[in-house]
Design goal:
The protein is of the alpha/beta class and 502 residues long. It has five domains: 129 residues, Rossmann fold, CATH 3.40.50.10190; 91 residues, DNA polymerase, domain 1 (Orthogonal Bundle); 52 residues, 5' to 3' exonuclease, C-terminal subdomain (DNA polymerase, domain 1, Orthogonal Bundle); 136 residues, Beta Polymerase, domain 2 (2-Layer Sandwich), CATH 3.30.460; 57 residues, Beta Polymerase, domain 3 (2-Layer Sandwich). Helices cover 37% and strands 13% of the residues. The chain contains 18 helices and 14 strands. Helix 4 runs antiparallel to helix 5, helix 4 crosses helix 7 and helix 13 crosses helix 15. The longest helix has 18 residues. The chain is globular and about 75 Å long. The two termini are 34 Å apart. The structure holds cytidine-5'-triphosphate and manganese (II) ion (MN) (2 copies). The site of one manganese (II) ion has 5 residues, from helix 14. Belongs to the DNA polymerase type-X family.
Amino acid sequence: MLRAPAVLGVRKRPRPAEAGGAGRQEVKFGDVRLYLVERKMGLSRRSFLTRLARSKGFIVDEALSDTVTHVVSEDREASSLWTWLRQRALKDLPGMHVLDISWFTDSMREGRPVAVETRHLIQDTLPTPPGCSTPPPAPASSISQYACQRRTTTENRNRIFTDALEVLAESCEFNEMEGRCLAFRRAASVLKSLPAAVQRLEATRGLPCLGEHTRAVIEEILQCGHSFEVRKILSDERYQTLKLFTSVFGVGPKTAEKWYRRGLRSFSDVLAEPGVRLNRMQQSGFLHYGDISRAVSKAEARALGNIIDEAVRAITPDAQLALTGGFRRGKEFGHDVDFIVTTPEQGREETILPQIIQRMKKQGILLYSDYQASTFDVSKLPSHRFEAMDHFAKCFLILRLEGNQVDAGLNNAEGDSRSWRAVRVDLVAPPMDRYAFALLGWTGSRQFERDLRRFARMERQMLLDNHALYHKTKKEFLAATTEKDIFAHLGLEYMEPWQRNA
Ligand code: CTP
Ligand code: MN
Ligand code: MN
């Protein structure tokens, strides 16, 4: 059994705003910010409930702002409440829970924020436009704000919008505006899940995660076929340069920015600059740039699967190899091919990757290898930050793939007569009892993973990462041998890998 680490006892200090009045109270649920609607409730009951919630470690905001996560109202009349809420000029209203007082009383009784259930929700009822007898289109409120509750296949019917939003997200990322970046990515992800193309702005009404800015972009595209803001970004020198530099394997936004500030604008600028020292990864990135910036096809992924499977079998016949990442989600093309390998014998998985690498080297197909030994330690708390790397043994490779091993032939450039190409491959080797978590974590998509973790935290008081699932209030780890076990622990309907293209 895994032990709860001591760090869990650490509690956040209340922010000054919550500490006024009757002395300081400990904040236990930093992720949840309540706002109690005074209408119907009345001022004195509102003050009483506010004190009650604070005494139990909840944050209660006096003012309704975009940082509020749970709006609680005693006014069950949805239309007037929603009209009032819409007039508050909130950007994040679609992401907030608008709840009946029953959620509040349940939470006070339990001494923690209980999971939001449908019976708690005060749902927005869209008014029927005058003169229109048919009811409004499918209730957008039935679409969850969490990607892990939306089935998203590779068939994106709103690519024209999502491509634009992803440019905006990336531009925010280059400018270190993480909040805005995430908002655009969330909006794009919601649009990807829709069963049909958005043809009128009204069709987006009530959709979660679509802010003012996103709506304006959608409207512009609907009217003009493109967004001027996106066009401006695409022709911006800084954006173009950072996009170019970060397309090199081993070059992240930080390095790209550094090169840009030195006045470098092209690969030849970088390579000719005496002050720039490339690490081994970046050197390989430049060396194989043409090949690895070209998409990998499904047939190529299959061929690599065969090569790696053969290596694994030769080393440990009872090892288990599985395709993961985008190809497991059913994508036709990827930027790399991801595999997960594990062994029934605990501890054996730590030596298998170096052996696979050694074998490929002997076969003459290893063009680059970055092996990272396991730093996995069961006493480590599941991380709050998705971006944090996991601790399993893993390697980032560039392999030489021969054309005669690929059924459909290589996805090489027109006029390229070589009989081979370079391909990026990732391998991760978790211990068998962590396999389900690692598989779920490496299958992606990134947005799906982010929302799984956010859902676990916000709705279930659980922490999820590539290693484990931890129940914060019960202070225990929940075991899983399959992905289905993890969805079940989270109280989520199971999603097939091909439905996780959020
Ligand atoms: N991942 C991770 N830790 C890493 C790298 C990746 O957990 N150090 C996970 C991410 O959840 C990601 C998945 O592995 O979703 C696959 O990563 P990546 O290959 O970058 O993305 P894909 O979804 O496979 O997309 P592509 O087809 O472009 O490769
Ligand atoms: Mn991948
Ligand atoms: Mn990868």
